[in-house]
Amino acid sequence: MASACVLCSEPGGRLLWQSAHCRVVRVDEPALPGFCRVIWNHHVAEMTDLDVASRQLLMRVVFAVEAAVRQCFSPDKVNLASFGNVVPHLHWHVIPRWRDDRHFPEPIWGRQQRESTPARAIVEDAALTAIITAELAREENRHEQ
Ligand SMILES: [Zn+2]
Fold first, then answer.
1. What are the residue boundaries of the structural domains of the chain, listed by start?
2. Among 40, 54, 65, 124, which residue carries the largest CB count within 10 Å?
3. Which residue, among 123, 117, 116, has the nearest Cα to 73 in the 3D structure?
4. Sign of CA dihedral 97, 23, 19, 57
């Protein structure tokens, strides 16, 4: 039920960017500083609940966020994940990973591998938003050509 869903009633993180269809929020996780979620605004559970154009639109935003996270934080790897087991409201996690982060090479929800994690680059929300916006604009131009 929509009213019981946390992603229907709350942003789900610090809002970086939004459109009529979806939004990008930043997760407050200092050890993984570029960790973002891309959340579809309407309450649907699965990618195949969206029409093809909407799926493409959502993934275009996911890839723009991935590109922005790579530019800002130069992670060793980016993990893209969509589960929705706990909150069955369609969202993608975009998670920068480093070989020396707490869980690597496990998923961040897996078994912890080490105690501490080195300090990472500090990038303000506004700077990350600007790069996401630029990446989306670049994608638009590519489609028009
Ligand atoms: Zn919802």
1. 2-144
2. 65
3. 123
4. positive
The pLDDT of residue 2 is 47
Ligand 1 centre and the CA of 80: distance in Å?
20
User: The domain 2-144 belongs to what CATH superfamily?
Assistant: HIT-like (3.30.428.10)
Comparing CA positions, the residue from 14, 137, 145, 122 lying closest to residue 67 is 137
Three-class secondary structure of residue 21 per DSSP: coil
Residues 66/94, Cβ–Cβ less than 8 Å: yes
**Residues paired with 15 in a beta bridge:** 25
Q: What is the mean pLDDT of each run of 10 residues along the chain (145 residues)?
A: 82 97 96 96 98 98 98 97 96 97 96 92 96 92 70
C-alpha 64/C-alpha 72 separation (Å) is: 12
3-state helix, strand, coil in the chain (%, to 5): 35, 20, 45
Express each pLDDT in 92-118 by its tens digit: 999 999 999 999 999 999 999 999 889
Count of CB atoms within 10 A of residue 138's CB?
A: 11
25: CA distance to ligand 1 center in Å?
15
